[in-house]
Amino acid sequence: MAAIAAVVSIGGRPAWTTRIARAALVLAAVAVLAWLLVLPLLAIFAETLRQGVAFYVAAIRQPDTLAAVRLTLTVAAIAVPLNLVFGLAAAWCMTHFQFRGKALLGALIDLPFSVSPVVAGMMLILVYGKYGWLGAWLEAHGWQVIFALPGLVLATVFVTLPFVARELIPLMQAQGSEQEEAALTLGAHGWQIFFRVTLPRVRWALLYGVLLCNARAMGEFGAVYVVSGHLRGITNTLPLQVDQLYEENFSAAFAVASLLALLTVVTLGIKRLLEWRHGGDMRAGY
């Protein structure tokens, strides 16, 4: 009882020792985050602008860098919608049906989390490369996957595959299927149920998953490094362009890296804006 009285005051409010401990823990957490996240981010922008705005603009406007930006946006524009469709379908199957192999499907969804991106790239080469399982057939039909855009898309889809599905599955499990079943008994068909019942209930989780998927797609390095061939201006994405510039032009590498950092900041800003404007709807959905 003496220990409890020392922690909690008579009025039910935390004692001063508890408040001090709580403040110390909060400050320690903020200090660690600032040291590991904020300080490196500020260092990138400081190094980027150290030689002036003119140098920064010139580094960004290099043809190879612009080609890397276009390629990164193209890969993300293909991979993210594919994972959006897959994530919705996988979450629907995992939460609305019972079937043999359900546990295996859940394990396969999580597989990219446990496989190194470099290993994922090697797997794609073994399947789609020139001497891979399908390489000869693809080459005979004039299709090039590895060291081309299709290989970059496949690698990006693989590493970002779980993000949308893993945002949706817990929410759909918590919501249950009662509303869909009620709509079915009232005569609604499948697409009506999906667009008018299911999708409005999961839209915020879906948007979170898409944001995370897009951020990872634009910043992926390991898998695309293996399957790209490092062809500057052709198969170099932004992370690969930063890696090559780091060996040649230190300041230019930081200038290009700042674009990826800006993408991270924009993604976080969109997430926080949605939470601020639609926080009530999000909490209601969950």
TrEMBL record:
The keyword Transmembrane applies. Residues 69-271 form the ABC transmembrane type-1 domain. The chain crosses the membrane at residues 23-46, 66-92, 104-129, 141-165, 205-230, 250-270. It is found in: Cell membrane. Its main location: membrane. Keywords: Membrane, Sulfate transport, Transmembrane, Transmembrane helix, Transport. CDD domains: TM_PBP2. The complex is composed of two ATP-binding proteins (CysA), two transmembrane proteins (CysT and CysW) and a solute-binding protein (CysP). Part of the ABC transporter complex CysAWTP (TC 3.A.1.6.1) involved in sulfate/thiosulfate import. Probably responsible for the translocation of the substrate across the membrane. This is Sulfate ABC transporter permease subunit CysW. It comes from Dyella acidiphila.
